[in-house]
Amino acid sequence: MRNLHHPRVDELTLPDVLHALSDPVRLQIVRTLAEREEMSCSSVEASVSKSTLSHHFKVLREAGVTHTRVNGTHRLVSLRLDELEERFPGLLEPVLEASRAESRRAAAA
Amino acid sequence: MRNLHHPRVDELTLPDVLHALSDPVRLQIVRTLAEREEMSCSSVEASVSKSTLSHHFKVLREAGVTHTRVNGTHRLVSLRLDELEERFPGLLEPVLEASRAESRRAAAA
DNA sequence: TCGAAGCTTCGGCATCCGTCGAACCTCTCA
DNA sequence: TGAGAGGTTCGACGGATGCCGAAGCTTCGA
């Protein structure tokens, strides 16, 4: 895959972004991403197959939540923090915080 | 329908809430609700049928975003603002703001 | 140059979602 | 008490979604 499609910041829509964030696996990815700046697809710990993970990365990228760049044999994924903040101010942080809280909750249970 | 089910605040989950907010029609409902405190189901201007609207109200209610009380022949729906804020601090306001901006955008186009 | 690492794509499957119209329920009021 | 207003439920339909394993594509390194 040569050309990775990334929507422009003015093409992002709220429903698409919220939908991208409404899946537990994707939320986990985003949470991890928020702690690491940039990461390869394979460094997510999720209980789904490689192809499913790839699918989730695609959904996040096409909704405009993440950016993916190719580096040798692997892809490096990062959050489009600044652009998200520009287009939907204040949106991501509470989601991340709530997601962390929910993850702690699950760990405690 | 006698017993409307409303999840307790500690039963709300982030994916459910985000999913409930990821549909344009539901976003419009929530936006309207944010301006009016309480409203009846029929006072939404949406280009979908009555049954579809009813479905969307149900999704919002079951995700914990709204509260519905019966008053005579109609239902009065309101946002569960305080509880949402308690469970997911800071989440709703940016969503509302982004949704308003998107709606203005659409109106300008 | 060939093998392996790292992803994506494909095909398929079961489930969910948004949508509609028709039928139904319940409360109010004439 | 019966008609109507305001919603919900039902059944159906087409399309999207999440999931998987197998196969394919690229790039690096031996």
Give structural notes:
- The structure is a homodimer of 109-residue chains.
- With 109 residues, chain A is α+β, with helices and mostly antiparallel strands.
- Chain A has a single domain (9-100), classed as Winged helix-like DNA-binding domain superfamily/Winged helix DNA-binding domain (Arc Repressor Mutant, subunit A).
- Chain A has 5 helices and 3 strands, in the order ααβαββαα.
- In chain A, strands 1-3-2 form a 3-stranded antiparallel sheet.
- The model of chain A has no long low-confidence stretch (mean pLDDT 94).
- Chains A and B meet through helix 1 and helix 5 of A and helix 1 and helix 5 of B.
- Chain A binds a DNA duplex (30 and 30 nucleotides) through helix 3.
